[in-house]
Amino acid sequence: MYIVGVDLGGTEIKVGLVDREKGIVRKVSRATEVDKGPDKIVENIALAIKEVAGDDDFEYVGIGSPGSIDRKKGIVRFSPNFPDWRDFHLTEKVSELIDKEIIVENDANAFTLGEWYFGKAKGSQNFIALTLGTGIGSGVVANGTFITGNNGIGAELGHIVIVPEGPMCGCGSRGCLESVASAKFVGLHARELAPRYPESLMIKFAGDINKIESKHVFKACEENDELAKIVVNETVEVLARAIGGYVHMFNPEMIIIGGGMSKAGETLFKPLRERTKKYVMVSFRGTYRIEQSDLVENAGILGAASAAIFSKGVE
Amino acid sequence: MYIVGVDLGGTEIKVGLVDREKGIVRKVSRATEVDKGPDKIVENIALAIKEVAGDDDFEYVGIGSPGSIDRKKGIVRFSPNFPDWRDFHLTEKVSELIDKEIIVENDANAFTLGEWYFGKAKGSQNFIALTLGTGIGSGVVANGTFITGNNGIGAELGHIVIVPEGPMCGCGSRGCLESVASAKFVGLHARELAPRYPESLMIKFAGDINKIESKHVFKACEENDELAKIVVNETVEVLARAIGGYVHMFNPEMIIIGGGMSKAGETLFKPLRERTKKYVMVSFRGTYRIEQSDLVENAGILGAASAAIFSKGVE
């Protein structure tokens, strides 16, 4: 039977009817309408689920959301997308409108499970998943086990300190990976340096020096822009150092990278593969691949559905 | 029934008769006699096993050895203790003299399994084991699984780069943890700096500036020696950074530290616990403990026996 996957974003709710073998068979999207309050958001989720299911029955619903999630209690502790949610009983609220079991999971865990069931890591026993977006999310499967740790909060690879004297991160550390390699930081760093490079193509691409984002940096880098090359080089350096660490930790066969910044493709991946060698000892050479996620726009829906599948199967 | 654990060192072979519940019931030791060649070493191992067993029967034998071990084939690929061994079929050779199944395992993995079955991590589902000796060995149990990775070479925490522009390590990287926090490095670093601190107690304790080892550094640190405090402080800093990373990766309940340098006790552990907080984000505070191994001189024998128990149970 089908599973419904809900990718709960701050502006849009994407919902898919998912078949375990075939993936997404149908999908719809709806505005989240955050400004109209929690009840309206829950109503929109329910309407989208009903719309996507139509006359087809489904087993259960997985919801993927950014933020701190208590998957066992079905609670969103807090989420950057919904600033007024504090310990919000999302699954309880949705199940008042949809008479099925509802599972909620952190979007990074969902992404990892989505790659495991539907992506390049399908069937893998050892891989790492990273999402390079506004923040950096991550998940780990090691020796066939989805690693969550003693309190279920492990695999926070984005908050490991990589540059000890680096910039302050929201997590309270200096120089954790998220603070020096997220799309948000890449945009910020480029905007800081741009006044020294007034001819930089990234300014042209963005239209305004204050509107430079990571996508403009990578686009300019493709055109051999000097400042863009500097920023991409710095980003690749810290990512390579981090990934080198993961390789020694987990001996994974694959590191799969998704999220907005992964769309830069080979402009990011080619130097990243090259540079990572510097941080990996000889016995690990050739044991791992660094791959771009190919789930793209469907990653959120498939991840949410996968979180539900995993939850039903294991817990 | 009993298991025999063999701690195969470069100068001494320690062998114990081990009960799964009670631990070591009897132990003996014998000179390794490395200079007399591989056949003599194997003979000494067999003699020690027979001596420790006496009239008691035992199920199988676990051997723990430093170096690169192929546990499936029972081969020592290479070992710092036995420079002329290359792909040495240790288990085959020993079983010619002892008619039981013989299992060989890397000493760091053995240490981890020993802590799991007999040490402070007994029954834990999530912990990290580190040995701070000449090198740095490590092992990980996450979500109840002993993590070995895709090629069985994972959990090499000692070779993760911690100081990107740090000293060259034998592994080919610069500034991996082993190159900046092993007992060997601590001694070397102290000897380099000692000429600038001719009054340092570590020189007095060692008797000669060229004989300073890590134990003299920690002993001098207890006496508030200025140079010793500098060296210990630097060591604690890189260890804290490394452990902070492990906490985010694995969300372990415990990090257990053994090996020669752990004997420094609170002189090492107190500042290490304090400093690690700097590298751990708030949600992980209070989730982990940093503990000194209490297996001490028995760690090698119990680890070797545990490697055999694990191997029989899981593979």
UniProtKB/TrEMBL annotation, chains A, B:
Write down the InterPro entries for this protein, in alphabetical order: ATPase_NBD, ROK, ROK_cs
User: Which PROSITE patterns does the record associate with it?
Assistant: ROK (PS01125)
Q: Which Pfam families match?
A: ROK
Family label: Belongs to the ROK (NagC/XylR) family.
PANTHER family for the chain: BIFUNCTIONAL UDP-N-ACETYLGLUCOSAMINE 2-EPIMERASE_N-ACETYLMANNOSAMINE KINASE, ROK (REPRESSOR, ORF, KINASE) FAMILY
This protein's name: Glucokinase
> Which organism is this entry from?
Oceanotoga teriensis
